[in-house]
C-alpha cells in the first residue's frame, strides 16, 4: 500500500537528471561538476527511498503511473512501474552514475556539455528499466545512442571517430530490428484480436496465444537486437573498440549499465513475451552463452591493452546471462540477474582502475608498463587485487554468487534433465565451466604483469598513489562487491518471486509441448 502513495516517484527519478541536464547547460563552467554530483547524489538517494518503500513480497509491478498521450492511430501511453528485477537495475544505475561523475574529475574540456550528456544518458537508462509501454521502452532504448556517441566522439582517444561510428551503426541496426519486431507484433495482435496495445503487461498475456511462427519471427528480431547490446558473438566487435577509445567514466557506464539494457530486454521481453520459443530454443541459447564465456576468455589471454582485456572479459561474463536464461531454471535465472548487478559493479571498478594506471603511465599497453607498479602505488594495487578476485569469482565476493547460481541452476534445470535437450544443455554447462579456469588465468596474469616483478627505471619516483577522490570511488565500489558477496540475499530477495513466475510459465509450456 505504501508504494501506491508514491507512484510519482518514478517520474521524479526521470525528471531529476533531466532537470540536471538543463541546469548544467545554463550554468557557468565551474558549476558543471558540482551540479552533476548534486543531481546524481539526489537521484541515488531517491532510488534508495523507493527501495525502502518497495514491497518485495509482491511479485507484480509497483509505483505504476499511467498517462495517455494518443489513442488513434496508435495507442501511446506514458506508463512506468517497478518490480524487484527493475528495482535492482535502477539502484545499480543511480549508484554507478554517481561513481562515474565522481571519476570525471580529469575531464577539463567542455565540462558543461560533458556532464549534460551524462545526465541525458542517465535519463535514457533509467527510462528503459522502468518503462511498461513497449513503444516508450524503445524510445528510451534508442535515446542513449545520442549521448553515448558524442561522449566517445568528443572525449575519446585517437580512434574515437571510428569507435563512435561503429558503436552507432551496430546499435542502430539493433534498434531497427527491435522496431520491426515491435510493429510486426502490434499489427499481428491487431489482426488476431482487433485489439491494439503497447502495454507490456498485456503483451505478456497476449503474445503466447499467437501462432508459433509469428512468435518465432517477433522473438528473433527482439533477440538479435538485445544480443547486439549485450553484446554476444558475433555482434560483439563494437565493444572493445568503444571501450578502448572512451574516457574512463564513460567506459564505466558502458560496461556497467548499457550492456545490462540488452540483458534486461532478454529477460523482460524475450522470456516474458515468448515462453513457447524458449521451450524450443533454450538449449541453443545455452550453447551460445557457453561459447561466449569460453571464447571471450581465450581472447583475453592474447590482449596487450588493459581495456581490451576488461572489454572481452565483459563479453565473457555476459555469456553467463545467456546460459542462465536459456535453461528454464529459476535458480539459474536468479543467478543471471545477480550476475547483471555484480558485473555492473565489478566492471565499473576495473575500468576505473585501468583509468588510474593510464593517467599515471599514459599507456594501456601492458608490455610498455612492464610491471612493478605496486612499489609506488600500494593502495591502488590493493583495490586492483580486490576487483581482480571479484571478477574471477572468489568466494566471499559478488562475482562468486552470480556464477555459482548460474552453474547450479543450469546443471539442475529442466532443460539439462529433459530427454529431448539434456545432452546439448549439459554439454554447454560443462564447456562453460572452462571459463572459470580461463578467467582466473587472464585476470591473475594481468595483475602479475602490472604490479609484480622489477619496476622499469622510467617509472622510478614518477608515479603517485591514489588521490582522495580515487580512494572514495574505489572504496564505494569495493564495499558493494564485498557486501553483495557476503549477503547476496539483500538483492535476491527483491526478485526471487519474479524468477519463479517467469520460469513457471515457461515450464508449463514445456510440459505441454512434451505431452
Itemize the secondary structure elements and their pairings.
Layout: H1 9-26, H2 32-53, E1 62-70, E2 76-82, H3 84-102, H4 111-130, H5 134-143, H6 145-155, H7 160-193, H8 200-206, H9 212-229, H10 238-245, H11 248-273, H12 275-300, H13 306-325, H14 330-361, H15 366-369, H16 378-391, H17 398-411, H18 422-432, H19 434-451, H20 468-486, H21 489-513
Helix pairs in contact: 1-2, 1-4, 2-3, 2-4, 3-4, 3-11, 3-14, 3-21, 4-5, 4-6, 4-11, 5-7, 6-7, 7-9, 7-10, 9-11, 10-13, 11-13, 11-14, 12-13, 12-18, 12-19, 12-21, 13-14, 13-17, 13-19, 14-16, 14-17, 14-20, 14-21, 16-19, 16-20, 17-20
Task: Describe the protein's architecture and organization.
A two-stranded antiparallel sheet has the order 1-2. The chain is mainly α. The two termini are 42 Å apart. The longest helix has 34 residues, at 160-193. It is built from 21 helices and 2 strands. The radius of gyration is 22 Å and the shape is globular. Helix content is 73%, strand content 3%. The model has no long low-confidence stretch (mean pLDDT 90).
H/E series: HHEEHHHHHHHHHHHHHHHHHHH
- Strand tally is 2
For the largest beta-sheet, the strand count, sense and barrel status come to: 2 strands, antiparallel
Kindly, what is the distance between the CA atoms of the first and last residues, rounded to a whole number of angstroms? Answer: 42 Å
Radius of gyration: 22 Å
Strand numbers in spatial order across the main sheet = 1-2
Mean pLDDT: 90
Which range best describes the helical content: under 10%, 10-25%, 25-40%, 40-55%, 55-70% or over 70%? over 70%
Quaternary status of these chains? single chain
**How many separate helices?**
21
- Please report which band the strand proportion falls in: under 5%, 5-15%, 15-25%, 25-35%, 35-45% or over 45%: under 5%
Helix and strand content put the structural class at mainly alpha
Shape: globular
